[in-house]
Write a structure and sequence with these properties.
With about 400 residues, this protein is α+β, with helices and mostly antiparallel strands. The chain is built from twelve helices and 18 strands.
Length: about 400
C-alpha cells in the first residue's frame, strides 16, 4: 500500500488540521445529563447476568461532571468461595494497560524527550535491520507506529499467518525476562507487514514500554509510578500483586470462562515477574482507573496537577488510522464505525444514541472503559469474564445513552 504523504508531513497535518476541531467540541459539552432512575436498568441487567451465570461478578462506575452517578458491585469476587464482589476488588486489566503506557509515552513527548516521528531504531538499533518477508524496511518503524499499532509487530496468539506462527513458536517469553530481553528477542523476528501500512494489533505497546525505559533511565513501572500512578493516587495499579495480604481482594473468573494458555505471553498478571508488559501486564481497581479516566476527560489535568497538555490528549483521542488511509485488519480492529488514536479506539460515526468522539479500550479478561467528552462522562466496567466482554460492552453503551436526558 503506497503511503500518499511522508511520515513527517502526515504528522504535521495531524497537528495543524485536527487538534483545533477536537478541542472546540470538548469545550462545548452537551447539556444532557444522566438520569439516575434510568440507570436502574443497567443495574438490573448486571444482576441478571450474574443470576444467569454469564459472569461471576462485576464492579461498574458511571461518572459525569466529575462525580459518580452509579458505583455498584454485583455478584461474586470469587465464584469458588462465593465471596461477594466489593468495590475495592483487584482485576487483571490486560490491554487496559495500553492506554496507561501510551499516556506515559506522551508525557515524554510533552517533555520534548521523545518525538512521534522518531525512528524506533534511534532507541533500539536492532529494529533498523528487521525485515518483511525477507525484504528490507521501506520506511522505519516510528514511535507513532507503536502508539497506533501500525509498526508491523504483531501477536502470536491469534490468526494463522506465517509470521504469527513464527511468533507463536518463538521462545519470546521463556524464563524470567525483563523488558530489554523481551524486546531483543522480538527484534529477531520479521514484521508482519511494512510499517505504516496496516493496523495490526500486537506487541507494539510492549516495545513502547521499553522505549520509555531507555529515554527515562527508569524501569517502566518506576517511571509510571513517579510521573503518573503515584501522583494520580493509583496506588494499586501495578505489574503484579506485590502485597500478598491483598490476594483475597483479587477478582477471579469462572473456571469455564478463562484462558487455557497464556495470553500475549502472560501467565497470570497477579504473579510476580520481571517482565513489565506495557501492553497487557497490569492489575488495577476501579477507583484507580477512575482517576486515570477523569484526568483524560479533564484534558490532562486532575486536582490542580497537569499530566498532559490539553492538545496532547486531543491528539491521542482522534483517529490516526482511517484518516491516514491505513488498512485495518479484520481480526481485532474495533469496527467499521471506529478509528484508532494513540492508545485508544475512537468512534468516528454518530449512530444514535451513540455519539461521535467517544474513545476507550478494553482488556481480554473482560474489563472495558470509554470516555465521552461531549457528554462529560466516562464508564468503567471491571469483570473477569472474557467471553462476555463484547456483548456486555455493547449493551452497556446502549443503556448509558438511553439514560441521558436533556
Amino acid at each position: 500500500m503506497d503511503r500518499p504523504v511522508s511520515r513527517r508531513a502526515l504528522l504535521g497535518g495531524v497537528l495543524a488540521a485536527s487538534i483545533l476541531p477536537v478541542l472546540a467540541r470538548a469545550g462545548e459539552p452537551s447539556p444532557r445529563r444522566l438520569d439516575r432512575g434510568r440507570l436502574d436498568q443497567l443495574s438490573n441487567d448486571f444482576r441478571a447476568e450474574v443470576a444467569a451465570g454469564n459472569i461471576p461478578g462485576a464492579v461498574v462506575l458511571v461518572q459525569q461532571h466529575g462525580s459518580p452517578v452509579l458505583l455498584q458491585s454485583f455478584g461474586f469476587r470469587d465464584p469458588a468461595s462465593r465471596a461477594a464482589m466489593t468495590e475495592d476488588a483487584i482485576f487483571r486489566i490486560y490491554s487496559m494497560s495500553k492506554p496507561i503506557t501510551s499516556v506515559a509515552a506522551m508525557m515524554l513527548v510533552d517533555d520534548g524527550r521523545l518525538r512521534l516521528d522518531d525512528a524506533l531504531s534511534i532507541y533500539i538499533p536492532a529494529f533498523a535491520s528487521v525485515t518483511v518477508a525477507g525484504a528490507p524496511l521501506a520506511s522505519p518503524i516510528t514511535i507513532l507506529d507503536l502508539l497506533r499499532h501500525t509498526s508491523g509487530i504483531t501477536y502470536g496468539f491469534y490468526g494463522e499467518t506465517a509470521v504469527r506462527r513464527l511468533y507463536a513458536k518463538a521462545p519470546l517469553f521463556d524464563g524470567d525476562i525483563d523488558n530489554a530481553a523481551f524486546v531483543e528477542r522480538l527484534a529477531r523476528l520479521p514484521l508482519a507487514e511494512q510499517p505504516g501500512t496496516l493496523w495490526d494489533y500486537g506487541h507494539s505497546t510492549d516495545v513502547l514500554g521499553r522505549v520509555i525505559e531507555i529515554v527515562s533511565g527508569r524501569s517502566l513501572h518506576q517511571f509510571e509510578r513517579e510521573r503518573l500512578l503515584d501522583p494520580l493516587g493509583m496506588r494499586e495499579t501495578a505489574f503484579f500483586l506485590a502485597d500478598q495480604s491483598r490476594r483475597g481482594r483479587v477478582a477471579e473468573p469462572s473456571p469455564r470462562d478463562w484462558f487455557d494458555r497464556p495470553i500475549a505471553g502472560l501467565d497470570d498478571p497477579i504473579r510476580p515477574r520481571r517482565w513489565e508488559s506495557g501492553g497487557a501486564g497490569m492489575i488495577s481497581t476501579i477507583s484507580d482507573y477512575a482517576r486515570f479516566a477523569q484526568m483524560l476527560l479533564n484534558g490532562g489535568e486532575l486536582d490542580g496537577r497537569r499530566y498532559l497538555k490539553a492538545e496532547t490528549v486531543a491528539l491521542m483521542a482522534r483517529d490516526h488510522v482511517v484518516a491516514a488511509g491505513i488498512a485495518r485488519d479484520d481480526l481485532y480492529f474495533p469496527g467499521a464505525e471506529h478509528g484508532f488514536g494513540l492508545g485508544f479506539s475512537v468512534r468516528l460515526v454518530a449512530k444514535p444514541p451513540l455519539p461521535r468522539g467517544e474513545y476507550g479500550w478494553d482488556g481480554v479478561g473482560g474489563t472495558f472503559f470509554f470516555i465521552d467528552p461531549a457528554d462529560d462522562l466516562f464508564v468503567i466496567v471491571m469483570m473477569q469474564a472474557p467471553s462476555q466482554r463484547g456483548r456486555i460492552a455493547s449493551d452497556v453503551r446502549q443503556l448509558i445513552y438511553a439514560a441521558l436526558v436533556p
